[in-house]
Design goal:
The protein is α/β, with parallel strands linked by helices. The protein contains 19 helices and 14 strands. Strands 3-2-1-4-5-6 form a six-stranded parallel beta sheet, sandwiched between helices. Helix 1 crosses helix 3, helix 12 runs antiparallel to helix 13 and helix 13 packs across helix 14. The longest helix is centred in the middle third of the chain and has 31 residues. The structure holds uridine-5'-diphosphate-glucuronic acid.
Length: about 450
């Protein structure tokens, strides 16, 4: 196997996980981030993100001399065979449009310091046509060295990112240039290819499109099952059986058919918005894609109204789980946040417990009014004290083992709203709880 030198720009979920995992595959990797504080943390072998198995791999590969961290690309760029750009591409404020300034800054930096021919892989999620535009920008500089842009989107999920990176369903490579660059990509992914992972070679625009279409499609599945779950409630059907019965059809597939409070996180909402923006900018209406967003946006209010209808003004509502999903400390665009905001706005106080997300949640609810009415707990049971309703917001495993008898002794009213359909309904029923969940009639859990 040809081992290669890689510089990764950006140490967020995609950059850090990719860098560490490429080192684990045997390559020599320098992870670069302009945020010096982050680099200092990484140099101490601490991961700034909560990701299973990541720190162990950092320590192992740094010890083996395959992984290092730097706050500038200057010292690693010209000993690299490949540069990977994995910086953030957030939405612009109050807009569906993507902020590409970090990507362009990376390309400018690369061009400034380049002293050899280079393959530059864009792993960040970028709108269709961005890689071609980056190539044009580079070509217009008439540099001494050839710098080729390749699109290679990443499909890892937070919480299981290391496993997803090492065992992907596919690798997508968008490459418009010559066979030489295809060879360097084959070296990069030699470990994966030798294990039979399929590579989809295409042009850059199609690769960029595969990323957005995949995320939007999965988001559509979630939005769809959420709407079907509302229907199931009205018709006394059971959404768990409906999801299972649908998902066993291999054309549909079982995954991403769990109803809940709506999809969130730093990817689905942003990428659906970007796809709407891309459609509109070429004069297409794309009503289906637009309705993924509107369906999900209205979900928060819909859920908040249900919570409000089960409680009175001045009641305490406890939220167990505030992250956008389990196994992460990430609360960015968590569907629970707008629900909490609405519940607060309608005069309830809120108690929050989360096994990993409390620190980040404190950074979200910063308005003085919210601060006064929210308290945070390190223990699930403590967080339901004097509460009139316990809302399960995230599907953390520990919530499957909640003790309803102990909760009952703490709560003002024995009432639960399970937004993830995970608690043990038998035990809550035996403890005479009022049980609400998603997509099942009150008495049918
Ligand atoms: C998502 C994609 O799954 C990854 O393939 C992709 O690489 C990543 O975005 C990205 O673009 O970087 P992630 O944001 O980590 O990954 O989260 P998911 O596990 O996909 O969940 C997204 C949201 O959908 C969460 O709020 C989750 O609770 C919700 N969801 C998911 C459901 O409500 N029901 C389901 O059945 C599945």
């Amino acid at each position: 196997m040809n081992l290669i030198n890689i510089t990764v720009l950006g140490t967020g979920y995609v950059g850090l996980v990719s860098g560490v995992c490429f080192a684990e595959c045997g390559h020599k990797v320098t992870c670069v981030d302009t945020n010096k504080k982050k680099i200092d943390i990484l140099k101490k072998m601490k991961s700034p993100i909560c990701e299973v198995g990541l720190e162990e791999l950092m320590v192992k590969n740094a010890k083996a001399g395959r992984l290092s961290f730097d706050s500038s690309l200057v010292s690693s760029i010209n000993s690299s065979d490949i540069i990977i750009i994995a910086v953030g591409t957030p939405s612009l404020p109050n807009s569906n449009e993507v902020n590409l300034s970090y990507i362009y800054q990376c390309v400018d930096d690369i061009c400034s310091y380049l002293g050899k021919n280079m393959v530059v892989i864009v792993k960040s999620t970028v709108p269709i046509g961005t890689c071609d535009d980056l190539q044009k920008k580079i070509d217009s500089k008439s540099m001494q060295y050839k710098c080729t842009i390749v699109s290679n989107p990443e499909f890892l999920r937070e919480g299981v990112a290391v496993n997803d990176f090492m065992n992907p369903d596919r690798i997508v490579i968008g490459i418009n240039e010559d066979i030489f660059n295809k060879k360097s990509l084959e070296h990069l992914y030699a470990n994966h290819i030798s294990r039979g992972v399929e590579c989809v070679y295409t042009n850059r625009k199609s690769a960029e499109m595969i990323k957005y279409s995949s995320n939007a499609f999965l988001a559509m599945k979630v939005a769809f099952i959420n709407e079907i779950s509302d229907l199931a409630e009205k018709y006394n059907a059971d959404i768990s059986d409906v999801s299972r019965g649908m998902g066993l059809d291999t054309r549909i597939g079982r995954r991403f058919l769990n109803p809940g409070p709506g999809f969130g996180g730093s990817c689905f909402p942003k990428d659906v918005k970007a796809l709407i923006d891309m459609s509109n900018s070429v004069g297409l209406e794309s009503s289906l894609i637009s309705s993924i967003k509107s369906s999900n946006d209205s979900r928060a209010i819909n859920i908040a109204n249900r919570i409000l209808s089960q409680t009175q003004k001045n009641d305490v509502v406890s939220f167990l789980g505030v992250t956008f999903k389990a196994e992460t400390d990430d609360v960015r665009d968590s569907p629970i946040i707008p629900i909490i905001n609405e519940v607060l706005a309608q005069g309830r106080s809120v108690k929050i417990y989360d096994p990993a997300g409390i620190g980040n949640a404190k950074g979200i609810f910063v308005h003085e009014e919210s601060k006064k009415k929210i308290s945070y707990f390190n223990d699930a049971l403590e967080s339901v004290k004097e509460s009139s309703l316990a809302v399960i917001g995230t599907e953390w495993k520990e919530f499957k083992q909640l003790d309803p008898i102990a909760m009952k002794s703490m709560m003002k009213k024995s009432q639960i709203y399970d937004l993830r359909n995970i608690v043990n309904y038998d035990s809550f029923r035996k403890a005479n709880f009022i049980i609400n969940c998603i997509g099942k009639h009150q008495n049918e859990q």
